[in-house]
């Protein structure tokens, strides 16, 4: 199998993929832009080490990412050389393992995506499975048992050199404050190989669920099981918890796991309506996160030009809409458009600063002088005045469209029609 990994076509594909994904540097500070020239100079030595099984990966660079709920997500960033090697391994192993994965597993797989997982969940609810077992695996990527994972890999991979290399990646450790700390468990989240190894381990869970005849959807370590009653849900939850903890040697977070109605739970940023024929909706926590980011981009304290501010907004909003356009609730996109325009009117009113400038700009927008003088000298606060008829008529939809602001609702409608 190492011959397949080190084949010219596979390596070129891996190199292009790493360069395309860009990403941050590892502990050696080498940027992705230097990878190709480095590989060309060092390849003979590197290939020999890989073939002989003497290659030792560098430690991962520890990065902490704040979670929306206030926790910390730990990432392990490999060096670009290790990303290249991991990508080459992942491509080869994907061809071996992916065809045998469950069709209800949608995360980090070719031709699979989160939207397919949501549609599958919607199908289950429509079919009458209106209770969900929402299982949370506690710090999954940090808790993977190396011996368990290697045992599963050894069932299919007979190349001992490759198994040794994968094990060394698992044991590579992380660099914290200049000190290398060995990792006794977990697959560092941040490398190309980690998602595939997670799927290989959790495929054991998928097979168990299929054997029991359960309706489920899994996206990486996020998975829901759908049943017809709360009593059945509690029974299945307890049984599957035992399987996960005893057979896979993982930890289930009992506080976050629950048996509940699907419309009361969050899955991949979405939820559902409680109708007999359910509709997909954006979960309220996803909306809260969106508004938090929009508030940051439309903060009055930032000394940005309006053109720059709108450009930043467009980049963020169109990406967000591209994902959440799966939602069946169009009205939320219309409401968000109105709220965003109001935030921008607040920024514009602040930019005009003094009554004289406000009056001049209002007159230029067609407001009679006496009315412009009255509003320019208003003592109302920024947010309150943005909802006034005078600004609603002057800084209207056409005004913002002329300045280049893209509409979430129009983007949503275009995506839904395509």
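-> sequence recovered:
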């Amino acid at each position: 199998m190492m011959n397949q990994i080190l084949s010219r076509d596979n390596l070129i594909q891996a190199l292009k993929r790493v360069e395309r994904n860009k990403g941050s540097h590892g502990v050696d500070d080498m940027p992705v832009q230097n990878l190709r020239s480095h590989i060309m100079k060092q390849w003979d030595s590197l290939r020999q080490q890989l073939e002989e099984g003497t290659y030792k990966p560098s430690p991962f660079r520890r990065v902490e990412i704040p979670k929306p709920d206030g926790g910390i997500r730990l990432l392990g960033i490999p060096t670009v050389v290790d990303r290249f090697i991991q990508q080459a391994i992942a491509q080869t192993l994907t061809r071996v393992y992916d065809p045998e994965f469950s069709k209800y597993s949608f995360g980090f797989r070719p031709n699979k995506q989160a939207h397919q997982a949501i549609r599958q969940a919607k199908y289950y609810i429509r079919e009458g499975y209106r209770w969900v077992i929402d299982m949370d695996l506690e710090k999954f990527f940090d808790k993977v048992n190396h011996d368990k994972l290697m045992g599963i890999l050894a069932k299919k991979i007979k190349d001992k050199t490759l198994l040794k290399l994968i094990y060394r990646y698992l044991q590579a450790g992380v660099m914290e404050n200049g000190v290398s700390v060995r990792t006794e468990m977990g697959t560092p989240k941040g490398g190309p190989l980690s998602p595939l190894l997670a799927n290989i381990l959790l495929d054991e869970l998928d097979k168990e669920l299929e054997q029991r005849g359960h309706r489920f959807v899994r996206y990486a370590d996020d998975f829901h099981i759908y049943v017809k009653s709360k009593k059945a849900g509690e029974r299945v939850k307890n049984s599957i918890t035992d399987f996960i903890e005893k057979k896979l040697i993982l930890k289930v977070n009992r506080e976050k796991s629950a048996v509940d109605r699907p419309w009361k739970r969050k899955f991949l940023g979405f939820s559902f309506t409680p109708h007999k024929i359910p509709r997909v909706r954006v979960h309220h926590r996803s909306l809260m996160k969106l508004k938090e980011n929009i508030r940051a981009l439309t903060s009055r304290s930032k000394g940005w030009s309006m053109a720059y501010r709108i450009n930043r907004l467009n980049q963020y909003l169109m990406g967000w809409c591209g994902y959440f356009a799966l939602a069946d609730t169009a009205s939320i996109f219309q409401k968000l458009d109105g709220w965003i325009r109001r935030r921008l009117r607040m920024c514009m009113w602040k930019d005009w600063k003094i009554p004289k400038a406000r009056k001049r700009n209002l007159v230029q927008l067609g407001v009679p002088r006496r009315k412009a003088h009255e509003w320019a000298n208003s003592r109302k606060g920024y947010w309150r005045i943005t909802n006034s008829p005078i600004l609603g008529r002057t800084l209207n939809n056409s005004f913002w469209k002329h300045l280049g602001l893209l509409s979430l609702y129009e983007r949503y409608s275009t995506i839904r029609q395509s």
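The longest helix spans residues 331-352.
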